[in-house]
Amino acid sequence: MIKNYEKFASVYDAIMDDLLYDKWTDFSLHHLPKKKDAKLLELACGTGIQSIRFKQAGFDVTGLDLSQDMLDIATKRAKSANLSIPFVQGNMLDLSSIGTFDYVTCYSDSICYMQDEVEVGDVFKQVYDHLNEGGVFIFDAHSTYQIDEVFPGYSHHENAEDFAMVWDSFEDEAPHSIVHELTFFIQDEDGRFTRYDEVHEERTYEILTYDILLEQAGFKNFKVYSDFEDKEPGEESKRWFFVCEK
After folding, report:
1. Spatial CB neighbours of 243, under 8 Å, sequence gap ≥ 6
2. Which ranges carry the Methyltransferase domain (predicted)?
3. Residues 6 or more apart from 226 whose CB is under 8 A from it?
4. pTM for this structure?
């Protein structure tokens, strides 16, 4: 059990490349229709950095995440930016209590954390049912190339004054799946370092599988792009972006 999750999450934020949030924001603004006071739901909003970017861009934003600890940090972050953003604890597999929206986003490969394609399809159906007519759903996912060729054997070590991190990735059993093993050493207020271990399992699918699941959920019109740009996916594209219209 992580006792000081705020400290732990601040390490996540520290190792996250801020440029990615710029890229997600730019891609979204390019593909979401201009609409005054459009209601936007950010799924898997984490510590709220992207939600704040969307709010500053003029959207009426709601953030949803599974982790209340993450949402507590997001709430503090929004408050210190003098922004009012409702952050809701919930699971994207069940959006029944959250209302409807003009736009829904799900970034940082969060869809890859679903257990299997059944859950991915369930998320798509939930999103479809909670989008207004003409609404847009944008999500990104790791490409099969990224999962199969880039991640296996990946190792990243980071050292700072108050934390150290070891990140190793291994091929998992299911097709196009990966296990990330993360070990953090975080300095407490008394100067001692405490170890925290986390395991993250991700899985992706062929583009055709995502297409079929989107169609089954009700989406008739969607396009696939790659690596934050308006270009078709290639053999070595690392991140796919799906822009889906209701």
Report:
1. 31, 136, 137, 138, 222, 223, 224, 225
2. 41-135
3. 143, 232, 233, 234, 237, 238, 239, 240, 241
4. 0.93
